[in-house]
Amino acid sequence: MLKHTVIAVTFGTFAMTSAALAQAPDFSTVDANQDSLLTIEELASVGVPITEETFSAADTNQDGTLDKDEYSAIEL
Length: 76
Ligand SMILES: [Ca+2]
Ligand SMILES: [Ca+2]
Prior knowledge:
CATH class of the domain at 24-76: Mainly Alpha
CATH topology of the domain at 24-76: Recoverin, domain 1
Low-confidence stretches: 17-21
Bound molecules: calcium ion
């Protein structure tokens, strides 16, 4: 009985960790030059699997960078 509970908890923690890793990194982590804007190069350099199409779709004001709001709305 107790053993089953431990296995369930362990699996639950593993599932949560996997979900967290699948999410995009923090804005400040990606923003290597700390200008509060993300370029596609900054995203690529931290391993965010983003295409130019996804990037320009997320870049709602079309200034070639993602601000915090644009980045939080992104769907990877
Ligand atoms: Ca930047
Ligand atoms: Ca933008």
